[in-house]
Amino acid sequence: MVLGAELIVIILPKLFYKTMKKIPLTLSLLALVTTMFAFQPVMLSAQSIAQTSGDRVQDGLNSIRDTYPAGAQGANEGNLREFVKKILEWALYLAAMVAVIFIVVGGFYYITAGGSDEQAKKGRKTLVNALIGLTLVILSFIIVQVVYRFLVD
Questions:
Q1: pTM, to two decimals
Q2: 100 near 72, Cβ under 8 Å?
Q3: Which range of residues forms the domain containing residue 4?
Q4: Distance between CA 32 and CA 105 in Å, rounded?
Q5: Which residues touch 138 (CB under 8 Å, ≥6 apart)?
Q6: What mean pLDDT do residues 73-77 have?
Q7: DSSP at 39
Q8: Is residue 139 part of a domain?
Q9: Distance (Å, rounded) from C-alpha 38 to C-alpha 101?
Q10: Residue 5 pLDDT more than 90?
């Protein structure tokens, strides 16, 4: 009977503490691996091109030439605005991805501090800065959308 009480009072809390200490690290690694697999490229195969005669290929080339004539006839202000908007959007998407990566890194530092105040401070600072950066990216994206709508209308 004494062994059972000793097991419950002394041994189980020690085992529980060791197990609980590993859970944040396990969850962090699981989240990292999951996101790595989530953003893997998907391999797709295109439909094979059937053998065509030279006339059909020439017809296709003529169709392209008629649709997109040589010269800068298709270029106008609207296309330049759209081009600049797309460039800004891609830059903001990239900045948002970097901010999310820093949120994960800051969270990792904070979770794995293990009582180290210096590492916990570093993790908190990284998290706060990454969240400020992500907020600025979101606000910048909204500003780009609003300015573009005013320019178009």
A1: 0.49
A2: no
A3: 1-34
A4: 10
A5: 96
A6: 53
A7: T
A8: yes
A9: 14
A10: no
Q: Quick check: 129 and 102 in contact, CB under 8 A? A: yes
Q: CA gyration radius for the chain?
A: 28
State which amino acid sits at residue 60: G
- Position 46 in a domain: no
Q: 126 near 102, Cβ under 8 Å? A: yes
Cα within 13 Å of Cα(74), Cβ side: 7
Residue 137 CB neighbours (<10 A): 20
In a domain, 55, yes or no: no
Number of domains in the chain: 2
User: How many other β-carbons are positioned within 10 Å of the β-carbon of residue 94?
Assistant: 11
Query: 126 near 150, Cβ under 8 Å?
Result: no
Q: Residue 132 and residue 89: Cα distance in Å, rounded?
A: 19
pLDDT at residue number 116? 87
* Residue 135 reports pLDDT greater than 50: yes
Contact present, 97 and 76 (Cβ < 8 Å)? no
Q: What's the CA gap between 140 and 98, in Å, rounded?
A: 15
Instruction: Please give the helix or strand (H or E) that residue 62 lies within, else none.
Output: helix 54-67
Are residues 150 and 83 part of one domain?
Answer: yes
* Nearest to 99, CA basis, from 125, 142, 136: 136
Query: Quick one: pLDDT at residue 56?
Result: 66
